[in-house]
Design brief:
Shape: globular
Oligomer: single chain
Strand content: 15-25%
Radius of gyration: 24 Å
CATH class of the largest domain: Alpha Beta
Largest sheet: 8 strands, mixed
CATH architecture of the largest domain: 3-Layer(aba) Sandwich
Distance between the termini: 38 Å
Helix content: 25-40%
Bound molecules: N-formylmethionine, zinc ion
CATH topology of the largest domain: Aminopeptidase
Structural class: alpha/beta
Number of helices: 11
Length: 422
């Protein structure tokens, strides 16, 4: 088996490819990954569901390729960064010798996972293991901007259907404690814009019906709702993924001047942007009514539109969730494999943000979100994102155990179950 330092330098090499949105270097990432795939003895195929957005599919052929396969998914793009606010340049993948931390954009989200899949497979193959099922490893574009030209298209393709996927693994989150987190569902993004119109006038005059007044009433109502949800989390009654989160993304109003804004003019238009995340089990009609009646009533000269309104349902009309208990035959296999490798799992949760896993769950394919990073602060999308080299290497061993267990046909239970679901 390869020296751990080789695995670390391969990880660093991937991290050094600048795949930041909005202009990710997908060509460089795919070239690098194809080399890695060849070294791991995997078949590679580059699809392009949307032009210029390569989606790499690797395959480790199983002994019984007609069994439902396992799909190990990761996205190749990363979010932008503000390099000046980082201690190490975001694409340097600097290894701090004292702490063992590797600093890079994507070190947690989620180039670690993509490379860990490949390293685990290399090691399993070197040890002579042969999977029963086909194992697919996908490296997908554009997750960070919604996956519309990535996995959302991919799951509708003939190539995807032919893969006969029974279970998907996708990303999770780091955890500061020693337990790994695992996610069985996620919240849906609703990106809402509310626009207000109102009577303009002198900045000194008190009057009703200005655009700002019309909109600020909404802000107050939205904030009351936000507080009620946040309180449930603060009191410990609910966890982050179980409530509706509402956060203001921008406020736009006023009449600009070269040095600022006009101060004595009440504007006739104003606008806010809100990031809402909807858990799969929430009462959607209630929130929609609240929106129409309290947050953006036309009686107050308000209109609203969605920039993004993800569904919380799967194509069969049920909340898009993967069962994480013994009624799902994949679950105990996954859970035991983590344990066997010395990992501890905390109670399965709803992912608070959004990942490509939602597109798989929507078409009825079970998916777990999992990134083996314990003892690690949650730094995805943050400055100074890092992962320690030891956690990274531990994660490879965890995936070795998981992939081995999932790849092995243990009887017909799992396969009958997934066939019935498809
Ligand atoms: C509208 S999909 C956006 C996807 C993005 N994913 C990870 O952060 C997110 O904001 O959750
Ligand atoms: Zn991610
Ligand atoms: Zn992300």
């Amino acid at each position: 088996s390869p020296a751990p330092s080789d695995a670390v330098s391969r990880f660093q090499e991937y991290l050094r490819i600048d795949t930041a949105q909005p202009a990710p270097d997908y060509a460089a990432a795919v070239a690098f990954l194809r080399d890695q795939a060849a070294a791991a003895g995997l078949e590679a195929r580059t699809l392009e569901p949307a032009a210029g957005k390569p989606l790499l599919v690797l395959r480790w052929l199983g002994r019984r390729p007609s069994l439902p396969s396992i799909l190990l998914n990761s996205h190749t793009d990363v979010v932008p960064s503000e390099p000046k606010k980082w201690e190490h340049a975001p694409f340097s993948a600097a290894l701090d010798e004292a702490s063992g931390r590797i600093y890079a954009r994507g070190s947690q989200d989620m180039k670690c996972v993509g490379m860990q899949y490949l390293e685990a497979i290399r090691r399993l193959r070197d040890a002579g293991f042969v999977p029963d099922r086909n194992i697919y490893i996908t490296f997908v574009p554009d997750e960070e901007i919604g996956g519309h030209e990535g996995v959302e298209l991919f799951v509708t393709s003939k190539e995807f259907k032919e893969m006969n996927v029974g279970l998907v693994l996708d990303e999770g989150l780091a955890s500061p404690g020693e337990e790994y987190r695992v996610f069985y569902a996620e919240r849906s993004p609703w990106w809402l814009i509310i626009k207000a119109k109102g009577a303009p006038g002198h900045g000194a005059k008190l009057y009703d019906g200005s655009a700002m007044e019309n909109l600020m009433k909404s802000v107050e109502a939205i904030r009351r709702f936000r507080t009620s949800q946040f309180d449930l989390v603060k009191s410990g009654e609910k966890s982050e993924g179980d409530v509706v989160s509402v956060n203001f993304a921008y406020l736009k109003a006023g009449t600009p001047t070269p040095t600022g804004f006009v101060m004595n003019l009440q504007p006739s238009e104003a606008e806010i942007g809100i990031d809402i995340r909807m858990p799969p089990n929430v009462h959607i009609e209630a929130l929609e009514r609240r929106l129409a009646e309290e947050w953006a009533p036309s009686s107050r000269n308000l209109t609203f539109e969605f920039k993004q309104k993800g569904t919380v349902f799967d194509n069969f009309g049920k909340p898009a969730m993967t069962l994480a208990d013994s009624s799902n035959p994949w679950w105990p296999v996954f859970e035991e494999a983590v344990k066997r490798a010395g990992g501890k799992l905390s109670k399965p949760e709803i992912f608070p943000a959004s990942t490509d896993a939602r597109y798989f769950r929507q078409i009825g394919i079970p998916a777990f979100g999992f990134s083996p990073m314990a003892n690690t602060p949650i730094l995805l999308h943050d400055h100074n994102e890092f992962l320690s080299k030891d956690e990274y290497l531990k994660g490879i061993e965890i995936y070795k155990s998981i992939i081995k267990a999932l790849a092995t046909h243990k009887g017909d239970e799992v396969d009958e179950e997934s066939r019935a679901e498809l």
